[in-house]
Amino acid sequence: MIPDKKIKTTCSYCGVGCGIVAEVDSQNKVQVEGDQNHPVNQGMLCSKGRNLHYVVNDTSDRILYPEMRWSRSHPRERVSWDQGLDRAAGVFKSLIQKYGPNSVGFYISGQCLTEEYYIANKLTKGFLGTNNIDTNSRLCMSSAVVAYKKTFGEDSVPISYEDIELADAFLIAGANPAWCHPILFRRLEKHKEKNPNVKIIVVDPRKTDSATFADIHLQIIPGTDIILYNAIGRRIIEIGLADKEFIENHTENYLKYRKQVMATSLKEASKLCGISVDDIKKVAEIIGESKGFISMWAMGLNQSAIGTDKNFSLLNLSLVTGRIGKPGNGPFSLTGQPNAMGGREVGGMASLLAVHKDLNNPVHRQEVANFWGVNEISPEPGLSATEMFEALESGEMKAVWIICTNPMVSLPNSKKIEKAMKNAKFVVVQDISHKADTVEYADLVLPAAGWLEKEGTMTNSERRISYLNKGINPPGEARPDVEILCDFARRMGFRGFNFNNTEEIYEEYCAMTKGTNIDISFLNYDRLKSEGTFQWPVPEYRHTGTARLFSDNKFYTPTQKAIFNIPAQIENTSEKTSKEYPLILTTGRVRDQWHTMTKTGKVSRLRTHYPSPVLEINPIDAYLDKVKDGDVVEVKSKNGIVRVKAKLSKSILEGVVFLPMHWGKQLQSDLNRANNLTKTVVDPQSKEPDFKFTTVSVSKYKKE
Ligand code: SF4
């Protein structure tokens, strides 16, 4: 291929945020390679990133023009943009007039660009008059958001990837970065290859590829994480490795923390979490004696009925050892989506306001309202992801606008989601692919531009903002999401949506950050295009970005001290196993697939690694259930059934089974959908669903 142009951009999959050079030929065909000069990946790409061009080049599944059904008894038909958006504006106006602003809402995505997130939030919270805007990021990292806020005063990830090469102790908790954040893990592997003294500890009920690489694998009983991290904290204190100076001068609430961790002996903790006392002691010594300690975590910790408390117990290990604000030290939550972090910056959840302002604070609400030129932001909390679909099911909410996400496959308790979609008076789906199961339920389908077909910015897991260039035109009549939203807002009669381009939206958001802890008011598109990526804050013109927060030991709390938050209780609050449902189901991801496979599912070479969903089950449980390797099994929970093949594996803890979450009806069968089984239980603090603990039974499937 002779490239016509080369475009620097960022991978659209995980939150690692690898730099990509896309080559576009005269036929608009794309090839990709890793950007050698990018600080994140230095030319490396994982299997998903390396194959991204197949997704762009194959437009066979793309939604090409707006489609609408005039009533539920008619099929959808092609309509013009004017017809579609006029109808949407008409329906939203009449519902708001009749039932109030909380009768409508938006459900968006961590794959949206920052400008899209910003506009959707401005439209909903500023102009529609409701805080009913939530995102699929609620499903992956909202527990970490709440924990950061309560510990440091703001939702601020303190460290950077460059800290990996400076640390010598890593605690990877409930994450499998070898598969889900591969380039980050590659950096960790290289670091260990060069420095054999580096110690890696992985906490996971499954022996994943990350756990296999680790020095110590703590194969924990699901739900007992707080007990384990408290026991490690206790041992650190007992052997005199707590940082007394840091605790005294820079933290609050230590005595309460000490009291809680001392209340459970190591022997008791060992019994409860299934980790030997020796291993607890060994890990405490590694952390306490290290020069640089980094904790990394993802869904295994966050997706729990006690997800925020689990986060607290892990963050407390950084506080008790004083391992924060120094090179090679700090807690590091890994974001699953490319712009989950950018969404948090612009207040992209029902519980947040832009630029880390607090929705519960009337002064903050007024500041945002003044900035947008509206009278007020509603003080009423918005509905979170699961609450929104419950409100649609009950009829309390009437209309939902879904952007770039596939709740029919990804939200828990699929049967309830289906009822909600059917019961809603009006469903808009704005997406790129017909392969998303959710499209089936839409009254109005709007074709959106995809990766490389629009410009904008994203922020990766380490607060690094990158500019994404447009390289090709979207197919058919597809339009960038910001254009669609601004067009709709103008049809609603709202001021403040007359932007000439995406850059003007970015500039409006940047102006809003001035003087805040995420100040990027001096970071314009020109700098991003010419100088590359920057980590926020970038508070001065010549500032080159901030790799590490809290270097001065000053936190964003009123006292400037970090807070030891004490988990309300140390034991899991999920349902208990029973005779009927004796096994614990945990769901998760596989190496070469992404979310609900609307993109990766198109690439044949990505399907070879894990061609179809299988239930991983320990041979002892399989023996008890009379199941052999390769048998088709029925997995049952209180909520539904899944029928898949069984894969016997000693790498999963006895009593636990695993199912990947990617597959849905469009790609295989709705009997393969893991979320048929999961329940709508959430962490009360973060509203993040309890995906990692569903009680199930497994039996060999017998045809009737
Ligand atoms: Fe893309 Fe993540 Fe792979 Fe990097 S590690 S290439 S960002 S999927």
UniProtKB/TrEMBL annotation:
Q: Which UniProt keywords apply?
A: 4Fe-4S, FAD, Flavoprotein, Iron, Iron-sulfur, Metal-binding, Molybdenum, Nitrate assimilation, Oxidoreductase
Question: From which domain of life does this come?
Answer: Bacteria
Domain 4Fe-4S Mo/W bis-MGD-type positions? 4-60
The coenzyme or cofactor needed here is: [4Fe-4S] cluster; FAD; Mo-bis(molybdopterin guanine dinucleotide)
Which family does the similarity line name? Answer: Belongs to the prokaryotic molybdopterin-containing oxidoreductase family. NasA/NapA/NarB subfamily.
Protein name, entry field: Ferredoxin-nitrate reductase
The organism encoding this protein is Algoriphagus winogradskyi
Q: Give the fragment's position in the full-length protein.
A: 1 to 704 of 1174
